[in-house]
Design brief:
126 residues, alpha/beta, Rossmann fold, five-stranded parallel β-sheet, 5 helices, globular
């Protein structure tokens, strides 16, 4: 079973995503901001992180920066899910090594699940 860590201050999104994911294949863990996300990254060792960009305390960009700078934190594929659609913002986070960018308001849950399956399916083939 693959673990997915959703770091998002919107409590509705992780619940909706969890309902859309096949329960036999995925376990969803959530954190309400980047600081809590860092702690869960260490304690839970997820296979994938779904990261929002706009959050209190430690936002998504700062979270990505901490991951890049740290030698101790595990390297996990990151799929950004945000409502920010600025080309510059998308380009900035893509250059930080994320595996995909989903604009939540433009994507169906089915499409987001397909992105997750694509990323985790690629991990299985490595």
């Amino acid at each position: 079973m693959k673990k997915i860590l959703v770091i998002d201050d919107d409590q509705f999104f992780p619940k909706t995503l969890e309902a859309a994911l096949p329960k036999a294949k995925y376990k969803l863990i959530s954190a309400e901001d980047g600081e809590a996300g860092l702690k869960k990254l260490i304690s839970e060792k997820p296979d994938l992180i779904i990261l929002d960009l706009m959050m209190p305390k430690l936002d998504g960009s700062a979270f990505l920066k901490k991951l890049q700078e740290s030698k101790d934190l595990p390297k996990v594929p990151i799929l950004v899910s945000s409502n920010l659609s600025s080309i510059k913002k998308i380009s900035d986070v893509m250059s930080m090594g994320v595996v995909g960018y989903v604009i939540k308001s433009d994507e169906s849950m089915q499409s987001i699940v397909q992105d997750i399956e694509r990323v985790l399916g690629e991990e299985d083939k490595k």
